[in-house]
Structure formats: C-alpha cells, structure tokens
Amino acid sequence: MGNSALKSHLETSQKTGVFQLTGKGLQEFPEELQRLTSNLRTVDLSGNKIEVLPAAIGNFLQLKSLTLNCNKLTSVPSEIGKLKKLETLSLNGNRIQQLPPGLGQLKALRTLSLAGNQISEFPPGLATLRHLDLLDLSRNQIQNVPEHVSELQAIEINLNQNQISVLSAEVSRCPRLKVLRLEENCLELSSIPLSILSDSQVSLFSVEGNLFEVKKLRDLEGYDKYMERFTATKKKFT
Predict the structure, then answer these.
(1) What is the DSSP letter of 123?
(2) 127, 149 in Cβ contact below 8 A?
(3) Which end is more exposed in the chain, N or C (fewer Cβ atoms within 10 Å of the end residue's Cβ)?
(4) Mean pLDDT in runs of 10 for the chain (238 residues)?
C-alpha cells in the first residue's frame, strides 16, 4: 500500500477519530498512527499480517474500540492496561496463548473477544472488569473452567468449541451471568454442576455437541427452575 493512501487515511482519521485499514497485508502496526494518539477513538486493522502489537498502544488514551481480528499476534503487551476508556477489544483469529495482567485494568471494557486463538487456560485476572458484558473465548484449547470464574462480572461467556471436560460449580455464582455457551466441548452429563440449573442467574445454557444428549438435561435436578428463567427471558424478547 502506497504512502499517499496511508496519508489520506491519516488525514481522514484526524477529523473522524476512526482509523480503519483492513485486509491490506500490513505486517506491522502503522507507526504513523502515533501522531493521532490524542484523538483516535476507533482502530480496526483486521485481516492483516501484524505479528506484534507495540507497547506504544498504551499511548492511545482516547481509544474506545480496538480491533485486530485475523492477524498473526502471539501476545498482547501489558501497556494495553493504560487504555482506561477502551470498551471493545477484539482479537479474534490470532495466535495468542495468554493475556497480560494489565488487561484487568481496562475499567471501561464491555466486550473482550478472543475467539479462535491458542489459549489453553481460562484467563485469570478478569474479575476487575466490572462492566464486562461479553467474554468470547470460543474456538480455543481451554480444558477446564476453574473456580475463579465466579468473580467474573460478564453477562455472556462464550466457550463454544474448546476442549472443556471440567466445569466448576462456582460458575453458578457469577453475579450477572445470563448466557453460558459451552457447545462442542468434552463435557459428560455428570460434569454439569446442578447449581447452574437450580441456583444461578443463567437463562440460556447452551451445551449441544458434548458427550451426552441434550434432552438428558431435563432429568437433572433444578432443570424446572432453569426453564422458568429461560421462558421468562424469552417472553421479554418476544
């Protein structure tokens, strides 16, 4: 991509606060964006070949949305924690294996999307994200949903297409959790904590494609209570 094209993009971005350059084969985060740290609110660099998100990302203090889906990122710098206004972080389809501790400092974050990476452990340190609505960890390599999940404030957690065989009963204590997606994992019926059905806020519990027939859920204690919540939520939206 020529310099003139990049220059015109930068000029537009200075006015709009939005920089979008997708599918252009970029191999690195454009250094020129540093000139716009004070007024960029949205950056979308999806569908490129970027391998490194530089530490300088921490200088974009006005950023509300950062999207780098389908690149070649293997990690996220801890400086990302400086982005106190960031509401959406979308890094789907990269090669990320773990998240930096700094991520927990993103106090305004509402959407954290990490589908299709190489994450093998449920990320710790996300309990401080008090406004998190959606945590998308689908299409990773997670095998275990641990006890610390109970501290998450997310309304929806998507864990479809992982390798999960262990699901902590603590998930039923998530204070705001309404939607829990666990399709196409390795769960046995006996691995399903009854408290999710009988004693949680979850009104959509999606478990198709595991090691049991979904209709067997109906035989579990607490299923009636779950169906009450499911039906009440459905009515709200119809």
Answers:
(1) P
(2) no
(3) C
(4) 72 92 94 92 98 97 98 97 98 97 96 98 96 98 97 97 98 97 98 97 98 96 96 81
Residues in the chain: 238
Listed residue (80, 138, 137) closest to 109, CA to CA: 80
CB 45 within 8 A of CB 72: no
Report the alpha-carbon distance of residue 63 to residue 33 in Å, rounded: 12
Non-local (6+) Cβ contacts of 118 within 8 A are 95, 96, 97, 140, 141
45, 71 Cβ separation under 8 angstroms: yes
Q: Which residues are CB-neighbours of 141 under 8 A, at least 6 positions away?
A: 118, 119, 120, 162, 163
Question: Residue 236 has what pLDDT?
Answer: 75
Closest CA relative to residue 205, chosen from 228, 226, 187, 220? 226
Q: What are the residues whose beta carbons fall under 8 Å from the beta carbon of 105, sequence distance 6 or more?
A: 81, 82, 84, 128
Give pairs for 147-151: CB < 8 Å, separation 24+: 148/122, 148/124, 149/122, 149/174, 150/174, 151/127
Q: Quote the tokens at residue 116.
A: 């299709």
Domains and CATH numbers, the chain: 14-236 (3.80.10.10)
In the chain, which ranges are continuous DSSP H helix?
3-16, 194-198, 223-237
